[in-house]
Amino acid sequence: MYDVIIMDISDPSGKNISPPSDFRQSEFLQSLKSILRPAGMSIINTIVPDNSKLDSVLKEFNKVFDVLYLAKAEEELNHVVYAMNIDFKKDKQNEQEIVIVEPEKLMGRKELDISFKQIVKGLSTKWDPTMNIESYCSSISLKYPQINANPLQMTNAVMTKNNEEFTNRTKELYLDDKEKVTKEKRKKKKNKN
């Protein structure tokens, strides 16, 4: 079992997404995950020449890894994906699969900072001293699970604390209200005719 696996596989032409599609398939990612210790991570250097396709690439990784952090490399096309070997419970709501997120399994910005700095200190002379660690850490953001979503956007994640679920149902409530208002308008229009 490994704590960290680094994957840096580029398309030789530089025109296509890296890593190539074979290394983004669920079967391959599942094999990769199976040799990581619990809470271990795979660090994947990703190059997406067309930034509009980045979300679809992340969704491919998210099919296997429930927790993904993302950092953009300074002045490069590269995005570094931190795929964590953390599994959340899954459930179904309204025929849609949802992820039940336990917040204690997610690393906050401060913890991420401290952890990264400890790793770098251990590397001493092997680390590039020109890299601004604080700046790099501040660019790392949680991409999956999507828990800080727009309130009118359906999300595939439900938060849970002490086995009590809570979720943002704003969009569902909005759509319910909209449907009621629309029915009322139709009813009034029908009555006028």
Explain the overall architecture.
By secondary structure, this protein is α+β, with helices and mostly antiparallel strands. The chain has a domain at 1-87: Rossmann fold, CATH 3.40.50. Helix content is 32%, strand content 28%. It is built from five helices and nine strands. The protein has helices spanning 26-34, 54-62, 109-123, 133-138, 170-192, and strands at residues 2-7, 36-47, 67-72, 78-84, 89-93, 96-101, 141-144, 157-161, 164-166. A five-stranded mixed β-sheet has the order 1-2-4-3-7. β1, α1 and β2 form a beta-alpha-beta unit. The protein is elongated, with a radius of gyration of 21 Å. The protein starts with a strand and ends with a helix. The model is unreliable at 149-153 (pLDDT under 50).
